[in-house]
Each structure stands twice: as structure tokens, then as C-alpha cells.
């Protein structure tokens, strides 16, 4: 298929669900999850797992509804026996149609939803997420500078002057102009909001980023700029990404490997060339045909 339009953006927000495990502190090796003990961090591994940032091992999970104090109610499994790794420095794509469970899997990796079965092992500091919609991830009441500083305030390690220095350095790095440092989200362009979100996600120097869905509202030029930024940051800050997208063109351009998810199962995975140029599964072929 022809893959030539860059169409993605993303944005971010610090996930406070992880704020207890110090992102840049030695205690980052503690459990990443508040939900349960199936999400663990390993101390820097030796041996075969050396180049991994994440292992997802035979994970099943979903949503519970109804019931009282854990009794009764119903359970709907959304993720079925999902098994993959994220390697150091790679951008791993995750594609599949709407409702297939991509964001649910992201929640599990972030520790916001506990797997029912299987294991999620983190080999890095806690991950951060870049969300689809900067309107939902940026608090409209706060300025750009405040928003990006917030994760550092929560962290509590740096004094006010050092926080400010770090925030300004990060905002400059993601090309947010100084004139808008004191602006609120609704005074920013869509692209600027994305950049602020990225700065907030990166301010505590995570090593693994989950980017959940492009923002289709951004025009193609801005999307291409944001993608380039993410790609550059990968090298500069030694990041690895799980990149969730509907847009197969973007995944083809950006990602090293790709997972294809169908109804909560990974049905195919490989390098983008393997999967997109020589798809083995009928489902992958259908997705590619729909993207033509
Ligand atoms: N909080 C929730 N409670 C119950 N069911 C949910 C909840 N969130 C999602 N689901 C269900 O889980 C399934 C997977 O949803 P999910 O949001 O993970 O899909 P997705 O692949 O991210 O879709 P999209 O591409 O539209 O973002 C869907 O059937 C959805 O209705
Ligand atoms: Mg989703």
C-alpha cells in the first residue's frame, strides 16, 4: 500500500496514578501499580531482558460492573491473552479497529486497570501517556508553565528555581514560544497544546511513552511536526514508545514494529515492512485495504 501521508499528533499528560513511584528516583523500582501486584518493575535487568523496556505476558483483563464491595456484578473480558515486548529505543505501533481494546491495554500498562491474568513487567521508570485530546488532558484553569511544572511539584525533589529552570528548558525543547508560557490552554493553538502536553509528559524524564491515538483534528502539517518532534525526542531522551493509532500511514512511517489487535487479541506482529507489505492474516489485509 502507499504510505505517504503523515497524519498524527498526540499529546500528553502526566499520569498521576503513577506519581507515587518516583520517576527519576531510585525507588522507581517499586511497584508501578496501585491496582495490584501483577504489574511490577524490575530493577535494571541483566541477561536476555537487557534491551527490553516492557514485557506483557499472557495478559487478560477487562471491566467489572455492578456488585457491592467486590461481590456480584459482571465482568467483561476485553483483552485476551495478549503477549508482546517493547524493546529499548523502538517505536512499537498498536493498530486495530475502534473498540478492540487498545486503550484498555494502555490502561493496564499504566497500572490504571489490573490484569485478571498474566503479568506486566516494566524495566524502566514509570511510563507516561500522551493522550489523543489535549483539551481533556490539560486543565483549562492552569497556565502552560504551571501545567508542565505540576509533575515536578508532585515529585517534590527540586526547589522552585530548579523546577522553573527544568520547565523552561523542556518547553523550549518542544518549541513552545516563551510568549505563551503564562497562557491557558484555550489561548493556544492545537499544535501548541500538543507540545505542552508532551512537555508535561516528559518533564520527569520517563523512558517509556504510551501515545494513544493521533488527533485527527490537527491539520496534516502540524501532525507531521509533532511526529517529527516525537521521533527526535526518542533519540535525544532515549525514549521508547508504544504508539497507538488508527492511522496506518502514520504507523508505517513512524514505527519500527507493529502489533495488530483484533477483538482484544494480537493477531499479527512484526516489523512494519513484514506486517504491512506482507500481511499474513486476513484481518490485517482488511485493515490495510480499508486504509488505501
Ligand atoms: N470504562 C469502561 N467500562 C466498561 N467497558 C469499557 C470501558 N472502557 C472501554 N470499555 C469497552 O472495552 C472495549 C475496548 O475499548 P477500548 O477503549 O480499549 O478500545 P480502543 O481499541 O481503544 O478503541 P478506539 O480506537 O475507539 O479508541 C469496548 O468494547 C469498550 O466498550
Ligand atoms: Mg482508544
Please sum up the structure shown.
By secondary structure, the chain is α/β, with parallel strands linked by helices.
Structure explained in plain terms:
The chain is built from nine helices and ten strands. The chain has helices at 102-110, 134-137, 144-155, 160-173, 190-202, 220-237, 248-254, 272-277, 282-291, and strands at 39-41, 52-65, 74-87, 91-95, 117-122, 128-130, 208-212, 240-244, 257-262, 265-271. The strands form two sheets. Strands 6-7-8-4-9-10 form a six-stranded mixed sheet, with helices on both faces. A four-stranded mixed sheet has the order 1-5-2-3, with helices on one face. Helix 6 links the parallel strand 7 (208-212) and strand 8 (240-244). Helix 3 (144-155) crosses helix 4 (160-173), helix 3 (144-155) runs parallel beside helix 5 (190-202) and helix 4 (160-173) crosses helix 5. The longest helix has 18 residues, at 220-237. The chain is globular and about 50 Å long. The relative contact order is 0.21. The chain binds adenosine-5'-triphosphate and magnesium ion. Residues 63, 78, 96, 98-104, 246 line the site of adenosine-5'-triphosphate.
Given as residue ranges, the uncertain stretches (5+ residues, pLDDT < 50) are 1-38, 43-48
Question: Distance N terminus to C terminus?
Answer: 7 Å
Number of strands: 10
- The shape, in one word, is globular
The share of residues in helices is 25-40%
The profile of the biggest β sheet is: 6 strands, mixed
Structural class: alpha/beta
Order of helices and strands: EEEEHEEHHHHEHEHEEHH
Portion of residues in beta strands equals: 15-25%
Strand order of the largest sheet: 6-7-8-4-9-10
Which kinds of small molecule does this entry bind, naming each only once?
A: adenosine-5'-triphosphate, magnesium ion
Average the pLDDT over all residues and give the rounded result.
83
Question: What's the number of helices?
Answer: 9
Rounded radius of gyration (Å): 19 Å
Amino acid at each position: 500500500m502507499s504510505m505517504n501521508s503523515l497524519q498524527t499528533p498526540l499529546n500528553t499528560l502526566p499520569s498521576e496514578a503513577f506519581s507515587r513511584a518516583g520517576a527519576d528516583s531510585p525507588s522507581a523500582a517499586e511497584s508501578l501499580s496501585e491496582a495490584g501486584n501483577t504489574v511490577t518493575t524490575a530493577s535494571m535487568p541483566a541477561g536476555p531482558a537487557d534491551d527490553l523496556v516492557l514485557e506483557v505476558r499472557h495478559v487478560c483483563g477487562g471491566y467489572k460492573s455492578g456488585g457491592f464491595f467486590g461481590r456480584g456484578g459482571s465482568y467483561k473480558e476485553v483483552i485476551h491473552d495478549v503477549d508482546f515486548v517493547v524493546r529499548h529505543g523502538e517505536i512499537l505501533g498498536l493498530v486495530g479497529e475502534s473498540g478492540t481494546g487498545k486503550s484498555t491495554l494502555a490502561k493496564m500498562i499504566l497500572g490504571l486497570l489490573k490484569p485478571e491474568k498474566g503479568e506486566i513487567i516494566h524495566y524502566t521508570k514509570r511510563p507516561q501517556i500522551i493522550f489523543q485530546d489535549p483539551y481533556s488532558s490539560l486543565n483549562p484553569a492552569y497556565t502552560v508553565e504551571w501545567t508542565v511544572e505540576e509533575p515536578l511539584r508532585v515529585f517534590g525533589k527540586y526547589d522552585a528555581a530548579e523546577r522553573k529552570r527544568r520547565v523552561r528548558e523542556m518547553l523550549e525543547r518542544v518549541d513552545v514560544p516563551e510568549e505563551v508560557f503564562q497562557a491557558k490552554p484555550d489561548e493556544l493553538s492545537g499544535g501548541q497544546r500538543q507540545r505542552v502536553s508532551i512537555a508535561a509528559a516528559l518533564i520527569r524524564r520517563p523512558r517509556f511513552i504510551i501515545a494513544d491515538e493521533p488527533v485527527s483534528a490537527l491539520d496534516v502539517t502540524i501532525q507531521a511536526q509533532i511526529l517529527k518532534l516525537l521521533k527526535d525526542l526518542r533519540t535525544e531522551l532515549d525514549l521508547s514508545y508504544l504508539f497507538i493509532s488508527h492511522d496506518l500511514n502514520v504507523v508505517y512511517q513512524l514505527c519500527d514494529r507493529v502489533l495488530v489487535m483484533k477483538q482484544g487479541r494480537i493477531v499479527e506482529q512484526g516489523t512494519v515492512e513484514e506486517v504491512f507489505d506482507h500481511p499474513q492474516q486476513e484481518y490485517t489485509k482488511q485493515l490495510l485495504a480499508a486504509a488505501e
